[in-house]
Write a structure and sequence with these properties.
Layout (H helix, E strand, L loop, with lengths): L5 H9 L3 H5 L6 E3 L2 E4 L11 E4 L4 E4 L5 E2 L1 H9 L3 H12 L10 H28 L5 H9 L4 H6 L3 E3 L5 H8 L4 H4 L5 E4 L3 E4 L4 E7 L5 E8 L7 E3 L15 H4 L7 E4 L2 H9 L5 E3 L7 H8 L4 E4 L5 H16 L3 E4 L8 H7 L1 H10 L2 E2 H10 L7 H15 L5 H15 L3 H22 L10 H6 L4 H15 L2 H6 L12 H14 L6 H5 L5 H10 L10 H26 L5 H17 L7
Parallel strand pairs: 12-13, 12-14, 14-15
Antiparallel strand pairs: 1-2, 2-3, 3-4, 4-5, 6-9, 7-8, 9-10, 10-11, 15-16
Helix pairs in contact: 3-4, 11-14, 17-19, 21-26, 26-27
Length: 598
Amino acid sequence: MPFYSDEIIEQVRAANDIVDVIGQYVHLKKKGSSYFGLCPFHNEKSPSFSVSRQKQMYYCFGCGAGGNVIRFLMDYENLTFPEALQELAQRAGIELPQQEMTAEARRAADRKTQLLEINKVAAKYFYSLLHSERGQRAMAYFQGRQLSPETMQKFGLGYSDQYSDDLYKYLRKMGYSDDILKDSGLVTIDEARGGRDKFWNRAMFPILDANSKVIAFGGRVMGDGEPKYLNSPETPIFNKSRNLFGLYLAKKTKRKQFILCEGYMDVIALHQAGFDNAVASLGTALTPGHAALIKRYTDAVYLSYDSDGAGVKAALRAIPILKEAGITCKIINMRPYKDPDEFMKGLGPEEYEKRIEGAENSFLFSIRIMEADYDMSDPAGKTAFQTAIAKRILEFPEELERNNYIEAVALQYQFPVESLRQMVVHLAAKEGSGITAARPANRPKPTNFAKQQLNREDGPTKSQMLLLTWIAEDGGIYRDIKSYIGPEDFNEGILQKVATALFAQIEAGEEINPAKISSQFPEEEEQRQVAKMFNTPVAEDASARDLGKALRETVIRIKEESLERQRKAADPGEQLQLIRKHAEIIATLKKHDFYHRS
């Protein structure tokens, strides 16, 4: 449990609007009363990550991640509860009382501190080995890549010894136990063979977080071993999808953009050449988490990926991810060289600067790559290409932006501007008519709306969650159902606790506050469940009459389940009397004209 009082926790939480905070990490777009974006906790193409200003909660309909603003910071930044609270308090200008941590909180903080310390010790050891006789081969490798001593020192480059237990023995000698070492990602502990190093006989690249703390390593094998490149596994202090190589240096740049590369050597070569804004993902394709991290420092990126087929595909995958995060993107042409490292050796910084100035718009780049799929000498192929372009232009939501790209593409490919414009208009109308045909205005409404809402999960549980969502969004519903439904009608456990807290808020005349209720549950899984209870989907296109009918059906279902539980728990002699009483209650409910939104 956190060591701060409930009052101070709520003060800090309330002072940090969840949309503003999450908006620094995730590109959010308003949709109805909520904001949506790509979930930073799993890879997805369509936004399913919802943030509600009214509820002060987030919830992902894809992976189920959810909670309040404190939980978001804990999960995204990999912070403990006290660390997240302290960061939010600092953001809001609130001074937290100085108190001692609980034993549990202290153990968690100490373990993270110890893991960071182990990585720092390992980085120093690798660095010393590189500059010793044992590291000659790695030193020759770095020198062969034309890295200066200053650059090697700046990036803390090192060498892991040829013996597979060298680092393990060194760390044990330094006093670290097997228990903590097995969580570091640097060694594996085997009962039969003892400790073995994750990295051995490799040129080493320390990976630092944005605060310049060593959190992981990358290693290139010296010789013909496999794999050629190896990265640390994920650990309590390292998440490869939320960190970037070189970020701790690039965040200090005076340039307005970041240069995004694919490899460690590309970043190092660019920094050595004076491009101190270069970063790279860590052995993985670009993710929404990476884009959200970049967005904290800049809203513009130059892609400097490899110029081969794989690099082009990686760029095409990265462009929409960056766009969704609200980051503009341009592509640097590095031909005739494969990557920034080779380019710098072949043509140098001045030519690379010119390539930056002439970088290609990401949309025009994707169109140029797409052109290769069409036979432009054939009228049919040319028409198909224009149609494909028009479909892509339709992805832009703003008319001004669509018009600008119509003119730019028409100029580049010598298409008649009006012809391309008409094609875009035609496709938009066709797409619109398709939507209308799929959902005609006179379509009959479902006869049992509530059951349609409940058909994906356990009936009783879903009914109770749906009712909690409705009440959280419209407190007037509670006043209409409280004569029939109380906390005791909800499933025992977390559902009943949440219902009790929500009803108590309303009875006390307080503003409905789901995020405050969420704070009562410190465990991550519990907060996910609470977030789900307040984010059960409600059909937005249903009429007020159907919503009122759905509310009645939901209340009846909850009450029927509750009454059945009472009957089963009663003595046999009371069964008949209870059946009659329950039948009267349900009959009354069926006649009741429940509150519905106008």
